[in-house]
Amino acid sequence: MKKNLSSLAISTAMILVLSLTFAGTSQAAVEVKAGDTCKRLGTTTKVALTTYTCSLVKGKREWNEPWFQVLKKRAAFYRILPADIKAKGKLVFATDPTDPPFQFFSEGNNLIGAEIDLANAVGKVLGVKVEFVTSGFSAIIPGVEAGRFDASVSAFASTTARQKIVDFVTYFNSSRAFLYRKGTLPNIKTEEDLCGLKVGIPAGTTMATAIVGLSTNCTTAGKDAIAYSLYPDQATTVLAVRSGRADLTILSAHVSSWWQQNGDGAFEVLLRPTQGADFNGMVVRKGGLATAVQKAVQQLMDDGTFVTIFTKWNIEKLARTKAEINISTR
């Protein structure tokens, strides 16, 4: 599980906003991660929502999660991997680590989250190593198209426009929510109430396109336009709301709820369950890789590993039961 920190700015922004990580988490000076050497077999230690067990791995004592330890390579899935993936022996995943609980940095600066766990599980089932490269969200799909990355886990919504460039393997549902400072917008109810507000949006997201139409609706109705600004990632967008540079942001419901729960009482959330309903999942390069990834994800669904991962991160209600290629709601 190799990690390349390709964007110091993203990591710094995440740390600035996350004086928070998970409430009640207390870390030692050196944070344990999977694969680290341990001493006594059977002992456990907890980091955020992850409980590691000291187990024997190829003759060495290492910290691992039991569900990951039991996963086995599926030879039939390995055989259908593209030749270049077999040759290099790894899948390179791009990720924007500002999207808790799917992918973010822990207090010990380790990359964690539901989709990080899932990507590692997919790699083990396929019989290849997994390498993560951090990237700004808007640069990920162009990077996959250009061949810099094989795939991405960044809670991407699958859309027909994006499917012209990359493939998708979908496995969870999402919808939108408003996130704003507590006590500042008592009368906000719908998208019509955004007129005249300062709204921060992460660049490259589906909301970055949708906000233009919402602002046009305001001016067509004779109201003030939405004063929207695009920010490089979710962490800096949330920081803009927290600091007052933006009145509000529109994020996925699960992400908005995470910030509210871990924001020391700073935020309120208004769920919009009928807005931005999407199928989400992995971005995968064109050329056949999606078939192998889909089979691996479906295997993890069938054997219970997928639900174990999503339950660990408290998002099991979002989980789908079928991994599908290139389906979308829009």
Q: Can you give a write-up of this model?
A:
This protein is an alpha/beta fold and 330 residues long. It is built from 12 helices and 18 strands. Strands 1-9-5-10-17-11-18 form a 7-stranded mixed beta sheet, sandwiched between helices. A 5-stranded mixed beta sheet has the order 14-13-15-12-16, with helices on both faces. The chain has a 3-stranded antiparallel beta sheet with strand order 2-3-4. A hairpin with a 5-residue loop joins strand 7 (103-105) and strand 8 (111-112). The two termini are 34 Å apart. Residues 1-29 have low confidence and may be disordered.
Radius of gyration: 20 Å
Oligomer: single chain
SSE order, one letter for each helix or strand = EHEEEHHHEEEEHEHEHEEEHEHEHEEHHE
What proportion of the residues is helical, as a percent range?
25-40%
Q: Give the helix tally.
A: 12
The beta-strand count equals 18
TL;DR of this structure?
The chain has helices spanning 8-17, 66-69, 75-79, 83-88, 114-126, 140-146, 160-163, 206-220, 234-243, 253-261, 289-302, 305-312, and strands spanning 2-4, 44-47, 50-57, 60-64, 90-95, 98-99, 103-105, 111-112, 129-134, 151-157, 167-174, 176-181, 198-202, 227-231, 248-252, 267-272, 278-284, 319-325.
Ordered list of secondary-structure elements with their pairings:
Elements: E1 2-4, H1 8-17, E2 44-47, E3 50-57, E4 60-64, H2 66-69, H3 75-79, H4 83-88, E5 90-95, E6 98-99, E7 103-105, E8 111-112, H5 114-126, E9 129-134, H6 140-146, E10 151-157, H7 160-163, E11 167-174, E12 176-181, E13 198-202, H8 206-220, E14 227-231, H9 234-243, E15 248-252, H10 253-261, E16 267-272, E17 278-284, H11 289-302, H12 305-312, E18 319-325
Parallel strand pairs: 1-9, 5-9, 5-10, 13-14, 13-15
Antiparallel strand pairs: 2-3, 3-4, 6-7, 7-8, 10-17, 11-17, 11-18, 12-15, 12-16
Helix pairs in contact: 1-9, 5-11, 5-12
